[in-house]
Amino acid sequence: MATTDTVNEDVQVHTDPGGETRRGFLGTLTAMAAAVGALLAGWPLFRSLVPNVLYEPPKKFRIGSPEAFQEGVTFLEQHRIYLFRESSDFHAISGICTHLGCTVKFSPFLTPTEETVRQFTFRSLGEFHCPCHGSKFRGEGTNFSGPAPRPLQCYHLELSPATGELVVDVSTEVDRDFRLVV
Amino acid sequence: MSFAGIKNAWQNLIWPWRPESNREAGSGIVANFLLHWFPNRVSLRSLAFSSSLYLGTITFVVFLVLAVTGVVLMFLYVPSVERAYWSIKDLDFAISFGWLLRRLHRISAHLMVALVFLHMFRVFLTGSYKSGEIVRSARPLNWVIGVTLLVLTLLLSFTGYLLPWDQLAFWAITVGTNIAASVPSVGEATRQFLLGGTIIGQPTLIRFYVLHCALLPIALFGLALWHMWRIRKDGGLAIVEQDRQEALTREPATPSKSKTYSVLGIASGTTVQVNDPTTLNEDNSRPSTPFLTVRILLVTLLTIAVSLGLALVVHAPLEAAANPEVTPNPAKAPWYFLGLQEMVGYSALMGGVIIPTLVILGLMLIPFLDREQKGIGVWFTDAAGRNWAVVGFLYGLLTTAGCLALAILAPMRSIFPGIESQAFFDLINPASFLLLLFATQYFVVLKRTKSTRYAAIATFCAFIIAFILLTYTGTSLRGPNWDFYWPWQAWPAHPTGL
User: Quick one: DSSP state of residue A144?
Assistant: First the structure.
């Protein structure tokens, strides 16, 4: 390798990795400019895929006049909501399992029983069972079996001032003791 | 053009495919575009059926079947929530051979998932991810590419699953995207980005459609080409390491006088002694054309025949049109996700996010954890390796069956009724026990044998059997409300009513 040795005497090579050369600095600068450029170019591509307008059903909707609902529980299929009526008291529990979003089914008891769950006493009509992974919830929504991490949501209810119909607001979560007295 | 002219043109086209001498075979590889990525000669050990079972080739052929049927299906399918379900109905009832296209596409997709797993099992069990000591090849990198291809295959299956827009599709995607939402802090944003909104609707369908038909197949095709090109660059299948070992022990050929070498300046003098272990010779190899090409052709034809045969007998089911109001009971994902769904039943975060991530990372790290260089290309390395495989298999069988029994007989929430913290159940559940048991197994075998290869074999075999058992449980032993039923037990006719 004698020839290579003679060549090396003429060429100045910076081998110190910490030492800054003009070429190294410009190279880093170019790479950084390219990265910034790629990010700038990529941002509109990404951002366009995050919707600004959702063409989805409204989160607050009328479900009918209070008298139309029978005593006990009614499942509103379209909205995946269980509406409970105890004479003049109304409350709504979400039918969406808090585990992975399947629709829970209500499994009624033969006779309603008094239950106390997490320091809350109520007249329970049954339990909620989820078909996907077997989660179970008490009559007021508390999870007690299976993988569900949280109780079922309870939604805010009000009367429409215009028509007197019940209005459910699924974007407003309320405590499980919430009751709308009509 | 005369008959002789046509015959001549035909001969000009096909001569590389049936060469009449070794020399012509070599020229064919250089001259023919379709052959240029094959090596001139291919090792007899590589050609042997037992060294690869041709699983990689079969997988790629199945992918091509999927691509061809998929392109035709794209002409017939409408990705809109109003039309999607009915265009699938049309395929089944109104379009000539539509049923065949759909069944072939579906069965090939299932086959591809199964084949990718089998191919990975083969590559692992023959130690084919190792780089070898004679020539340090980049097989570890190719293993990582392979694991990425596995992930892409699963994503393709998952995105394809939504497209029929039936109950199965709708609820599988509901479950799948909610698994993503169980990641702390960024989960819900990720779910909404996947869905293109807060609920599954038209934006979701078009997203999954584009991913399924454009982005994912192109990515998979590119990576698959890289995957195969790397095999060529690494000198063939890993079993060629055996040929290289033999070549090293061989006596160098008698020096022969050659002017060429001195003219090229490779060596001074007029004789050279060459004993390059990477060079295949007349005894241990054959020309790629026709010996490899004919085998690939045979495998291709057999694969297509089997897929078609299966498509004729296996029906492609279509459930009722997607209905967000009614969850089918039980709601199940496709079979290759049912092991995952079983674990998601214990904890969405552990079973659906942490364990799959750790498994994928663990698979990718195998070549970097196990750096021993013995028995490359040999099934189970040696007799001791075979024994450790059996031990791992039995250990996996026992531990998985134990964890399943625990999950079915004594759910965590019934053991600890007083605890309400979700984090507790995310950490303490049968899936995390299984993870711990397998990690312990790796280190115990490592300590006993001082061999990363044996430890890896034992753990990998336990992983295989756990995957199979969990998948079987999710598929066959789970009924309405995800309750446990033996195969001979009938499911209740009306499990739950309102």
Answer: E
